[in-house]
Design brief:
The structure holds two protein chains of two kinds. By secondary structure, chain A is mostly helical. In chain A, 70% of the residues lie in helices and 2% in strands. In chain A, the strands form two sheets. Chain A has a two-stranded antiparallel ribbon. The N and C termini of chain A lie far apart (65 Å). Chain B is an all-alpha fold. Chain B is 56% helix and 0% strand. Chain B has two helices and no strands. The longest helix of chain B has 28 residues, at 46-73. Residues 77-94 of chain B have low confidence and may be disordered. The chains are: A mainly alpha, B mainly alpha. Chains A and B meet through α5, α10, α11, α13 and α14 of A and α1 and α2 of B.
């Protein structure tokens, strides 16, 4: 890793420049009369059809999490890491049910963020503020995960790896500044258009990898038996086996709750909601839930790259030499298995596959900040143009926040960054999804349920040490469930607490006849399907129901 | 105004949609169903191929559900397009309420 592979690096640079050019040019794509409106900068004009949405949502949801973090976990601990597959299976039936309702009510009322909806539904700026803050907070570690993915590729390429800290991170910073620049200019149009390049590269790299690499490392039977043998050996750091090839009974709760919790959480993330709201019609969302699983197949195959990496002695040695950084497993596998030019394609797929979602995430967080913090606390009468300028600026700030997470948290398994975000974002589920169906819950009960769950989830996550490093923090995302005796994803335990508090307090607050707040939505708004994105349907003012 | 036949029909469609989607969730949620190594398929332990097979299955289930929801929301024959549209526009009866 001491010298830079010129061929791979050149291909990466060229493809990066192509994506950059497309990112800047995207500002002119589907151009509207006035671009200084959040519907334009933040939602790409709300006019994407099935085809563009498939690429945008795919580019949005399948990230460095898929290409780096999941295979790293499979490489490190085996079957547990495969939970990402049932996660990306369960997510589509779940989202199929509620996303069209969210789309409709947001289209009718011109809502740009999930917190906009919560404010309108419950007449509660406080609850909306909680939703917005949670969204921004949860997005930062997710963006950080994208940075870790880019870092892994640069490390394997040997770019700056032997120099000072500043020089080491310089290529990453340059990539990020360029990304920030075209996101600032083009808004959601940039990731929507660059997602085409990303997905083309990803599909090519992964399909070739899963067909070609097994022939190089001794076939699937050998890959699995080798992985099983390795996982059964003792990890010197913990004194226990590394993992297992099949989830043991003790790990079944963790496996199921990691999958279910992640699936419930995914479309609570601001960037996923942004992808949904940018679609043209209700139909587009449901149709996409039927065709997005194509990406899940890629995710499943990418996860198995972790086992292929275990079957390649060069990769295992390389990870060991890098202080056990399993995030390097996939880039190292590409380096060892592919000719330089194709490794360059694979690296580009990972890097661009991290940049596209990072752009969408920062836009979504910026929408939240602008609509639900800036507008509420600082400038209630902001014009659309002012909103757009604030959002552009905040998209830069949120990226800086992500850097803090990269520097501050353990990178043994970068997936913990995403899982930490999941613990937080899942706590917005009751307010948003229950709110799509019923006004039964009291707004303050939802707020207090959220608060209890956020505190519980954060404290418990903080208490989890990194494996083999007692006294360290934020090292795992699963913990023992009090009173149950099973280990489960902290997000799900916190979610149950959230629901219990919200239900109990709703009864109490209703009995006390505390004001429920004004609901500006009507039942028909949840199933509406207005055709013209430019002209939201006029909303007759309604009384609280 | 009300058409009980149609309502019953729509409710039945939504029940089937719900069932299809539930199957898609439960298939991989119940981990003891598949947490074992055998029978292997093409070198893949059961644990792995079982879950991978669910990916195309859930795509099929979601497609069926999508087609059914289209059926449930299609305007009745003989009805003027948009006749039932209130402030919300077409697709108003998209879901049972």
């Amino acid at each position: 890793m001491s010298h830079v592979n010129a061929v791979s690096f050149t291909i990466l640079i060229v493809l990066f420049l192509v994506v950059t050019a497309v990112g800047f040019a995207a500002a002119r794509w589907r151009r509207a009369d006035s671009m200084l409106h959040l519907d334009q900068w933040g939602l790409g004009g709300r006019g994407f059809g099935t085809f563009v949405s498939w690429f945008l949502l795919g580019g949005d949801l399948y990230t460095a999490y898929t290409f780096i973090a999941v295979p790293a976990l499979v490489f490190g601990v085996g079957a547990t890491g495969f939970f990402a597959v049932p996660y990306t299976i369960m997510v589509f039936p779940i989202v199929f049910v509620f996303a069209p309702r969210l789309w409709s009510v947001c289209r009718v009322h011109g809502y740009v963020t999930p917190a906009d909806f919560v404010r309108g539904r419950y007449g509660s700026p406080g609850l909306a503020l909680a939703i917005a803050v949670t969204g921004i907070l949860a997005t930062m570690p997710y963006i950080a995960l994208q940075l870790v993915g880019i870092q892994a590729v640069l490390t394997v390429l040997g770019v700056g790896s032997n120099s000072s800290t500043f020089l080491k991170d310089l290529p990453l910073l340059i990539a990020f500044v360029v990304l920030a620049a075209y996101t600032y200019l083009s808004g959601l149009r940039a990731p929507a258009l660059t997602a085409f390049i990303k997905d083309a590269l990803v599909y090519i790299a992964i399909i070739v990898a899963v067909i070609y690499i097994p022939t190089r490392v001794g076939g699937w039977t050998h890959i699995f038996s080798n992985a099983g043998a390795h996982l059964a050996t003792t990890n010197p750091k913990t004194g226990k086996p590394f993992g297992a090839l099949v989830t043991p009974p003790a790990g079944e709760w963790a496996y199921a709750t990691l999958a279910l919790g992640s699936a419930l959480a995914l479309f609570m993330y601001p960037h996923a909601v942004t992808g949904v709201l940018a679609t043209k019609r209700r139909d587009v969302i449901r149709r996409n839930m039927a065709i997005l699983p194509a990406y899940s197949l890629i995710l499943g195959l990418v996860a198995l790259l972790g086992y292929m990496a275990l079957a390649s002695p060069g990769v295992v040695a390389g990870v060991k030499a890098a202080d056990g950084n399993s995030q390097l497993a996939v880039p190292l596998l590409f380096e060892h298995m592919f000719p330089s030019w194709f490794a360059g394609i694979g690296y580009s797929a990972i890097v661009i596959g991290a940049l596209v979602p990072a752009a969408i995430m920062s836009i979504a967080a910026a929408n939240l900040f602008t609509r639900n913090i800036y507008r509420v606390l600082f400038n209630p009468h902001a014009t659309p143009a002012q909103e757009t300028r604030v959002a552009q600026l905040f998209s830069l700030i949120v990226k800086a926040g992500a850097l803090v997470f990269v520097l501050a948290l353990s990178k043994t398994f970068s997936i913990n960054l995403q899982l930490l975000g999941g613990i937080w974002i899942l706590q917005t589920f009751p307010a948003i999804v229950a709110g799509l169906y019923t006004r039964w819950f009291h707004r303050w009960a939802l707020l207090l349920g959220w608060l209890a769950a956020m505190v519980y989830g954060t404290v418990v996550a903080y208490q989890q040490p990194v494996a083999g490093e007692p006294g360290s923090h934020f090292g795992a995302s699963t913990a023992n469930v009090p009173g149950l005796g099973h280990t489960a994803y902290i997000a799900v335990t916190a979610f149950v607490i959230n629901l219990i508090v919200a239900v109990v307090l709703t009864f109490v607050f209703r009995a006390l006849k505390l004001a429920a707040g004004t609901d500006e939505t009507q039942p028909a708004h949840y199933t509406a399907d207005p055709e013209d994105p430019a002209a939201p349907v006029a909303v007759p003012t309604s009384q609280a129901s | 105004m009300s058409q009980p036949g149609r309502t019953r029909n729509t409710t039945a469609i939504w029940a089937v949609v719900t069932l299809l989607l539930l199957v898609g969730i439960v298939g991989t949620l119940i981990v003891p169903l598949y947490a074992r190594a055998t029978p292997a398929l093409g070198g893949f332990p059961f644990f792995y191929w079982y879950q991978l097979v669910w990916i195309p299955l859930v795509a099929i289930l979601a497609t069926l559900a999508y087609l059914l929801t289209r059926r449930a929301t299609r305007p009745r024959s003989g009805q003027q397009p948009g006749a039932a549209a209130g402030p919300a526009g077409r697709g108003q009866r998209d879901e049972p309420r």
